[in-house]
Amino acid sequence: MYKPATIKDIALALKLSPSTVSRALRDGYEISVETKRIVMEYAQKVNYKSNPIALSLKNRRTYSIGIVVPKLANSFFSQAIAGIESIAYEKGYHTIITQTHDSSERERTNVNHLAQRSVDGLLISMSAGTSDYSFLKTLHEDGLPIVFFDRVIDEIDTFKVTSDNFKGAYNATESLIKKGRKKIALLSNAPQLSITNERLSGYMKALADYHVHFRPEYIRNCSKGGNDYEEVEDAVKELLALPDKPDAIFISSDRISISCVRALKHLNFDPKEIAIAGFSNSDVVDLLHPSLSYVRQKAFEMGQIAVEMLLKLIESKYPVTEFETRVLDTELHLVDPK
């Protein structure tokens, strides 16, 4: 019967101590690069697999990471999770994924449940419904490593990774202006989210740079983040009912973008009358009708960076006191109406 290789087997074969092999496999800072290379190559050769249960008993760690996102069905978050898992599993960690549906109550419940299950760290993208972050502050102060991605907050000093939301919104709005549109509405997410304010700023800066008049009545916030189709359709109806209705709409959220296109189609609007640009990571966005110029975020890469940041916090031998916020570029894809 096949017996998988153990740390002791690797140590015996390479004439190293089991503790040295163990530290090398965990990328310990005290082990030389050359020794790590030799150990890793041999471990791969004999198909060594770590035992997370044994490791957790020895090190009082669970080798699991909690992930909290607003919506798994959102293309952006599913891509980010794929990025997280591509690194986590390689490093011997398992993931526990929860979704909040943009509910603050569910977010609090999910976070507390993950903490009670003794996850080694938490990756979170904030819910649109949350404005009180005290429950996260308490866990962070108690020593739980937390990293924020996409939807970040200023209230907790830790690693964060997000997109260049300002530039993405600026570029999308600019593309509408260059099509000759001067009455550009904004469909946006909940106002307390970091991405909402950054994208609003990019939208307003583009209007100002091109001397396009800013109209407050053209702004609509969808507090449920596109999860409630009727909320989005009502916002679109309100915009189209204005005495001086917009000739373009910039949509600053992935879920809202899809719902807006659906609403416009349902309302039988003429695509030539209203141009659309929005944020979207959907794989089928190019097939939508009416067509949509869109800003794509580097979701997979964001997930990878976020989990690498979290593992740095989890595995550091010393307290981490200096943190960075990584800001990733976005890509604008222009689609002409058909």
TrEMBL record:
<dbReference type="InterPro" id="IPR010982">
    <property type="entry name" value="Lambda_DNA-bd_dom_sf"/>
</dbReference>
<keyword id="KW-0805">Transcription regulation</keyword>
<dbReference type="InterPro" id="IPR028082">
    <property type="entry name" value="Peripla_BP_I"/>
</dbReference>
<dbReference type="Pfam" id="PF00532">
    <property type="entry name" value="Peripla_BP_1"/>
</dbReference>
<keyword id="KW-0804">Transcription</keyword>
<feature type="domain" description="HTH lacI-type">
    <location>
        <begin position="5"/>
        <end position="59"/>
    </location>
</feature>
<dbReference type="InterPro" id="IPR001761">
    <property type="entry name" value="Peripla_BP/Lac1_sug-bd_dom"/>
</dbReference>
<dbReference type="GO" id="GO:0003677">
    <property type="term" value="F:DNA binding"/>
</dbReference>
<keyword id="KW-0238">DNA-binding</keyword>
<protein>
    <submittedName>
        <fullName>LacI family DNA-binding transcriptional regulator</fullName>
    </submittedName>
</protein>
<dbReference type="InterPro" id="IPR000843">
    <property type="entry name" value="HTH_LacI"/>
</dbReference>
<dbReference type="Pfam" id="PF00356">
    <property type="entry name" value="LacI"/>
</dbReference>
